[in-house]
Amino acid sequence: MHRVWAIIERDLRRFRRSPTLVFISIVMPLVQLVVLGYAFGGKIKHLVVGVVDMDHAVPAVKLQEMFQAIAANADTFTPIYYYDETTALRDLKNGRISGILEIPPDFSRRLLAGANPRIALVEDNTDQFSVAALEGSLDALLPAYNAAPVSPRLSATVTLKVVEVYPYVPYIQFLLPGVIVLAVFISAMIGGGIIFIDDKARGLHEGYLVTPISKFELILGFTLSGAVKAIIAGTVLITVGSIIAGIPDPLNPLRLARMFILVIATALALISMMFLIMVRVNDPLVPRAIFGMLNTVLYFPSGAVYPTQSFPQWMKAITVVDPFTYAVHGFKQLVLKNTGLVAISGDLLFLFCFTALAMGIATLLFRRTL
Amino acid sequence: MNSNGFAIDVRDVTKKFGSRTVVNHIAMQVRHGEIYGFLGPNGSGKTTFLRMLCGLLRPDAGSGQCLGLDFRTQSGEIKKRVGYMTQRFSFYEDLSLEENLDFIARIYSVPDRKSAVDKSLERLGMTERRKQLAGQLSGGWKQRLALSACLIHEPQLLLLDEPTAGVDPKARRDFWDEIHRLAAAGLTVLITTHYMDEAERCHRLAYIAYGNLLAGGTVPDVLKNAKLTTWEVTGNDLPALAEKLRGKPGIEQIVAFGSTLHVSGRDETALRESATPFMTGAWRWQPIPSGLEDVFISLMETAKDNFS
Fold it and tell me: Is residue A42 part of a domain?
């Protein structure tokens, strides 16, 4: 028993002397509780829905007022107005809006004639959670619209016609973009974090710090070598993963080429982020502990497993600065909608700027001495 | 900066870690082509001093030049001209010898690096093993690889931090033969070691303890300046004799050397007076020249411990 106590005491002493490990082991479960709780449990809000009113008569305006009422109260969606359907459809495909509500030109005439008119919901069905929230909100709205406030004046009722822009998206396909980013992240973690700290722990970095290599050369070398490994992992996922998930036309060269560009941007951003986090770390146990923490803090709030519209404000703040968010959004556009590079230009811009910023700060923080 | 004939010429070099002074106002002059031994117990500041010379650590104070360059402000240039062999094997065990050397050659931007790698492998007799993974090498071969890597960019100064620790006597001898060949070709070598036989193979040496330089010069100079008188005692029950002698006036050091005891002190008269009662038939006393080990142990024990 003395030997067992010796081992326990030794390990606890070492644990106590690593404040980062103590912090992560205690705080990590709490972070997981809060992040995962809010990542999956919230109501979806703030969906942006385009409204194309081709009627403009009083019944159509009344319908629009009810959309505004939803925006002001339940806030499930916020309507923005389009003059034509083409522009709205383009924005839908580029991911700027989650759906289009179309009020047909003969809406008021048919309503007043008692001919049961229909409004159309053209939805981005690549995100089943958002679609369900939107449909639910409209299903609740239309009975209220149809209900007579005093006495029945209209004999007709308005119904909703749902139009799905894309073929049915099963959950495995919805998850694929997040899994691609996760694969790149795991490689980034190993390439940009663990290897660097292991070099430090084994004294290998002393060997190259004594050479004339500059800080920037070192960081760029580490980043690019890590990125190459992450790109290989990402490339396997965008091809094999697409086949397994049943993405239509998975080996389309144009789509693969676009995804490859996004894999590169993602790999560079995540590797440089890892390097920035690890640049002052010496304890080889820390990156292993940080891995779980980062996974929770960055992956789940990215919208990879549940729409970001359901998150509380503080979590939305994470999604704004989280490179995962932009990578996941970009892959969703390419994998699920097969859009062009224009639809992900904002994501690419963020990821490349993030890379430059993270590498710049890492270079400043990097110690050229021991 | 003018080198004044010295490869290393620094003074008042000081380094503190928190409140601990690890290197305390050390001065050192090493001539071109000289093998300079740097000795001292573990934690005495040898490695810290070497790291400051090659820019791995920033000194808190001090001035001087290394290879004609200001060692505080021109560490980038110094790194190009220095080969540094770390105490730990700092090469990739999952790369072959050739790949390790090629990596180092590329980092130093060595021109015609393939031929430099070939030359390096050949010089140290490692051509046959070029494809072998570094992790599969014995301690002696790892040491050869480390030395090869240090030399691949043809430095003017070699800084070797305990290069022979854990290496067998044959490999140590081969290593020192190589060091002497390199020095004869004009390379300056500053080497830290614990081994007294190695200290004696240096042209000059310095002894450091607790961050303070305690002695320096050629081996005869160090021995002479120590002014240490040593008696060798043989006979029965030497541990009992050692206990009786300990603490007597003039007796500073009692060290067992195999079946003999070395009794030393700097006050020859006091030492003799304390020893006389024990110069009986049971023990045979004989004055001997003090060795480096006697001198260094004496220096260490009398040095002020900065950390206590």
Answer: no
